[in-house]
Amino acid sequence: MPRDRSHPRTHTYPPMASFTLHGIPVSRGIAIGRAHLLTPAALDVRHYLIAEENVEAEVQRLQQALAAVHRELQTLWNELPKDAPTELGAFIDVHALILSDPMISEAPLDIIRSRHYNAEWALLTQIDELSAQFDEIEDPYLRERKADIQQVAERVLKVLMGSEPLPTAITPAAGDEFQAQMIVVAHDISPADMLKFRDRSFIGFVTDVGGQNSHTAIVARSLDIPAAVGMSQASQLIKQDDWVIIDGDAGVVIVTPSALVLEQYRERQQAALRARKKLSKLKKTPAVTKDGTAITLLANIELPDDCPAALEAGASGVGLFRSEFLFMGRASDIPSEDEQFEQYRRAVAAMKGRIVTIRTLDIGADKPLDQSEHTALNPALGLRAIRYCLSEPQIFLTQLRAILRASAFGKVRILIPMLAHAFEIDQSLAMIEQAKAQLRELDIKYDPEVQVGAMIEIPAAALALPMFVKRMDFLSIGTNDLIQYTLAIDRVDYEVAHLYNPLHPAVLQLIAMTIAAGHKAGIDVGVCGEMAGDTKLTRLLLGMGLREFSMHPAQLLSVKQEILNSDLETVVPQTRKILRAMEPAAIAEAVQALQTM
Ligand code: PEP
Ligand code: MG
Prior knowledge:
Layout: E1 19-22, E2 24-27, E3 30-38, H1 40-43, H2 55-78, H3 86-100, H4 102-105, H5 107-115, H6 119-135, H7 140-143, H8 145-162, E4 182-186, H9 191-195, E5 204-207, H10 215-223, E6 227-229, H11 234-237, E7 243-247, E8 252-255, H12 259-279, E9 296-301, H13 307-312, E10 317-322, H14 337-350, E11 355-359, H15 385-391, H16 393-406, E12 412-416, H17 422-441, E13 451-456, H18 459-462, H19 465-469, E14 474-477, H20 479-487, H21 505-520, E15 524-527, H22 538-543, E16 548-551, H23 553-564, H24 568-580, H25 584-595
Parallel strand pairs: 3-4, 4-5, 5-6, 9-10, 9-16, 10-11, 11-12, 12-13, 13-14, 14-15
Antiparallel strand pairs: 1-8, 2-6, 3-7, 7-8
Helix pairs in contact: 2-3, 2-5, 2-8, 3-8, 5-6, 6-8, 14-16, 16-17, 24-25
The site of magnesium ion has 5 residues, from helix 20.
């Protein structure tokens, strides 16, 4: 039976030895809570908490699924062909027995009642616990029954996932102790899995693998909750229910902290809250430097649901809508034109007349369409983003029509990822024209003036800018990939994460060149990679001439504050010096000095 969590031990800390793990900070802030270990199987289902008044309905949903599987097994048994091997009948009997056992038919119901987990999550929690017990059994025959239990659970999950979930996901209330303090600990969480955590049942993430700018880290930041990745063996060393502190600014995780350490972190948490409150006063203040230069601050979003946060942060629009998040985990059922149109239109409507930059499908590498998909040897160098789209013209055309249709409802820009070759630009533009012609034929409205831009995220693009500015309406620098491809380090691989350096002189040169070339050609240039949201780099980017920053909404007000305190008269000459420097130590020192000017 699961442990009863209805009486959280908020102030009784386990007398276990405390230890600290060091990894990569990916999402700011401090989280203090109890570890919730998630196995890969558990990551396949959605996790949300059920409101008190709906707990019994959720219990019923699971009971109905169990009953449906019972009927399914019964039918299977009845329809067994006469000449079927006897093992088959016995096999169905074993599954029916497992299904009726209280460990499956009752324990998960208790978990829903005591922990308020949704039915799928409750069932998997119970299966994980049972699996761990089975692993310890010495008898190999009995140990193998674990597979049967898992198969039965899968049947129930299938029924559950096909049934309508209750629309009762809740955000834990501040005073709701046990629900408000779970920290996910897992070996890895894919960006698609992260989407399942959007209803905020958890307050922090710790993973063994991952890098600063992996898409998992980016989604953690977009959820605006503390996270640390690249923690090596965290999922082995941290035990279920251990008290854990995540220091998301330092990339440190403290396990079973002493009362004193805990107190210090609680104070830091409070101070951060106060600072955030102060920042919120800047929401309506125009982003203008001390010398009067206006800066555009845009938001990066993954789904239309992120738009309210963008508005709340005072964004002037969306600079990057990562449309692939609508597609992930749906390989066999990619969203139709109408479904996509509806999502793009929702984002456009939510932004109330502000610009919405929709990036076309950037699938591949660490964002596969389907987790089980065959992976290329070097996925980051493989059939990703525009390469994939040009190889799947029907998928691309469908998306383009959907985006164009949404452009009739507001200010939409189309952004194409990972371009490197002139023929890729030309083919993309030709397909946009084809999509427009198809809509015209059907008398469907779109904005004929819709702007089309290129992401500059491959060094070859940054070194061949005339090819781009001639054909494109605007440029957006994807520093995450630009760094990855310039320095030849996989942004997902934590073993080379220490080599991921935005201040490498080669990276700085490429960014500065792109901004200058765009402006010389009279087109807008923005940065939509993570560098745009890093306040330590705001002045450097301003000094390079950047006037458009796109970042996660949670970073926007801090960047605005930095802009308000910056004076281009001092920032520009210092940046010139930095761009001439080639020694990392000198660059780091000069960037530091820039912040205090
Ligand atoms: C980038 O590469 O900087 C970028 C913004 O795109 P993504 O992180 O989605 O690859
Ligand atoms: Mg990119």
